[in-house]
């Protein structure tokens, strides 16, 4: 069999039929390996590892622009097909896009010239913007253009992060990372606001709720974008009194959403309580930032990891578990092992936020618990993502 024939045969596999399959599977596997490696390195077991610019820079960059961006890509490539009614990216184009993402992960461990390293790192998000922007443009879906804007800003913040890293400007590197993290929080706010209430209503077979006013959602979107931009401009380096009310408003609106969504029966359904608890971490992170900007003794690092581990990690795990089942034609029911994965990730966030101030074991414990959570997803969902839709 010739090489082109082998390529076509490989690209025709179910894994490459829609974006959520390769990016959810690879993103979760990468999170498992990256968190386990990070936890072992923290305790001296992998002290010989030396990626470009060191392990701390690698960890900061890759959990955002490696792991989180892979999941965002899988979600948006799948969602855009639903929004537009057009066939989603698949087969060879999807495989090539995934290889660009993979090259970025490998580049940290290869002796590449700086221009080539930067080119490999910065290629993926603009390609994703081009694919999604083209589909939305062709379908005339202007209401979804903000997604393209958010992805464009994410690419800009990645460039800022890498510039600071290579120029040894820790301040600029941190600005890019915090800006990107809170930009991802903006996506969590938008996507969570669209689907969590709907999932609860459908999962518990409740009558449709009366339409809510659009203004809280608009305020959350504008406020979240303002927060992300302020972080990229230095708003996370020292408390700024004017940002406290912005974060307080966001925390209040997130709390209002949680109150509006709450149903006692959701605690019996892992696919629902996992998303609800993840969104609770987002609300707590915005509240923590409000207190930090008011000058309270709330360590900003703990607030950041409440958002990153509990909010982002929890929402990702809950969403990829549900989306993978729904888009592969499986019943929307998870196994006991997957429910355990949700609980492990929640405990990872608790360790990182509440145990770290009292014991250094909280860092490694959080990393290992998070790695186990994503390992359970990979073990339980690999067959589903590699198999045809039922």
From TrEMBL:
This is NnrS family protein. Pfam families: NnrS (PF05940). Keywords: Membrane, Transmembrane, Transmembrane helix. PROSITE patterns: PROKAR_LIPOPROTEIN. InterPro entries: NnrS. The chain crosses the membrane at residues 23-43, 63-81, 116-133, 145-166, 178-199, 219-236, 242-259, 271-294, 306-325, 337-355, 367-386.
């Amino acid at each position: 069999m010739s090489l082109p024939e082998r390529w076509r045969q490989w690209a025709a596999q179910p894994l490459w039929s829609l974006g959520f399959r390769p990016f959810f599977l690879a993103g979760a596997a990468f999170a498992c390996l990256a968190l386990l490696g990070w936890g072992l390195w923290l305790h001296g077991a992998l002290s010989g590892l030396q990626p470009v610019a060191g392990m701390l820079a690698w960890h900061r960059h890759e959990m955002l622009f490696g792991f989180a961006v892979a999941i965002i890509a899988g979600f948006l490539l799948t969602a855009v097909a639903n929004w537009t009614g057009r066939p989603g990216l698949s087969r060879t184009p999807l495989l090539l896009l995934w290889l660009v993402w993979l090259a970025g992960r490998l580049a940290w461990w290869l002796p590449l010239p700086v221009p080539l390293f930067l080119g490999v790192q910065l290629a993926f998000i603009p390609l994703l913007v081009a694919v999604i922007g083209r589909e939305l443009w062709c379908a005339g879906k202007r209401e979804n253009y903000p997604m393209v804007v958010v992805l464009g800003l994410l690419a800009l913040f990645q460039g800022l992060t890498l510039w600071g890293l290579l120029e040894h400007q820790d301040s600029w590197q941190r600005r890019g990372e915090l800006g990107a993290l809170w930009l991802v929080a903006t996506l969590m706010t938008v996507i969570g606001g669209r689907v969590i209430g709907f999932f609860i209503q459908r999962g518990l077979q409740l009558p449709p709720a009366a339409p809510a006013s659009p203004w809280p959602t608009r305020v959350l979107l504008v406020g979240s974008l303002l927060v992300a931009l302020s972080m990229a401009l230095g708003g996370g380096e020292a408390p700024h009194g004017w940002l406290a009310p912005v974060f307080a408003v966001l925390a209040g609106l997130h709390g209002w959403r949680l109150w509006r969504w709450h149903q006692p029966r959701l605690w019996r359904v892992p696919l629902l309580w996992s998303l609800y608890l993840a969104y609770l971490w987002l609300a707590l992170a915005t509240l923590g930032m409000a207190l930090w900007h008011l000058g309270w003794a709330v360590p900003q690092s703990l607030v950041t990891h409440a958002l990153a581990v509990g909010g982002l990690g929890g929402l990702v795990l809950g969403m990829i578990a549900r989306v993978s089942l729904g888009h592969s034609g499986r019943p929307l029911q998870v196994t006991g092992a997957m429910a355990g994965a949700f609980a492990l990730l929640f405990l990872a966030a608790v360790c990182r936020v509440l145990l770290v101030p009292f014991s250094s074991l909280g860092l490694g414990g959080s990393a290992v618990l998070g790695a186990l959570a994503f390992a359970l997803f990979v073990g339980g969902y690999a067959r589903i993502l590699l198999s045809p839709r039922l």
